């Protein structure tokens, strides 16, 4: 979700962007960080995993459409934003969407602590209650325009949980009630783009 970094974003309409399935990475996978793209942020987020086909959900329908929740890292090449209003080069590098480490089916998404550590040092801390739009509002909005299906993942937004990273750093994102997602950053190999 765009426009969902904190309460001030409530002044903006909800908006979504798409990330390719090729961006997915597992816990422990490395994230290639191409410094020639400028600043690259990691963003610690609550990720919603859809459990059934969902279209035109009402608020009351939303809980039944959710399989569970996991941790998402919405890696973002922020200096590319002025060059790319469709967010293809901003959001779709290989390994730009680590998720995991598992799906938690018993979680209240309205108040989940999010802590981001780089090389073991806490760099950001927040809570999902600070999102401009909550999970129910997001899924009502999204399913007005598209069908979501089993296994689809919605990254809910980064309420101040974004941190710039460089190649060679350890990233740990911890969400209360779920656990910790760990990935290391690396420079792309010679002749390889991120």
Q: Tell me, what's the shape?
A: globular
Largest sheet: 6 strands, mixed
Q: What's the rounded overall pLDDT mean?
A: 94
Query: Treating each run of at least 4 consecutive H or I residues as one helix, how many helices?
Result: 3
Low-confidence stretches: none
State the distance separating the first and last CA atoms: 22 Å
Order of helices and strands: EEEHEHEEEHEEEE
Structural class: mainly beta
Helix amount? under 10%
Describe this structure in words.
The protein has 194 residues and is mainly beta. It has helices spanning 62-65, 88-91, 135-145; strands at 24-25, 30-32, 40-50, 66-73, 97-104, 113-118, 121-127, 153-155, 162-165, 170-175, 179-186. The strands form two sheets. Strands 1, 3, 4, 5, 8 and 9 form a six-stranded mixed beta sheet that branches. It is globular, with a radius of gyration of 16 Å.
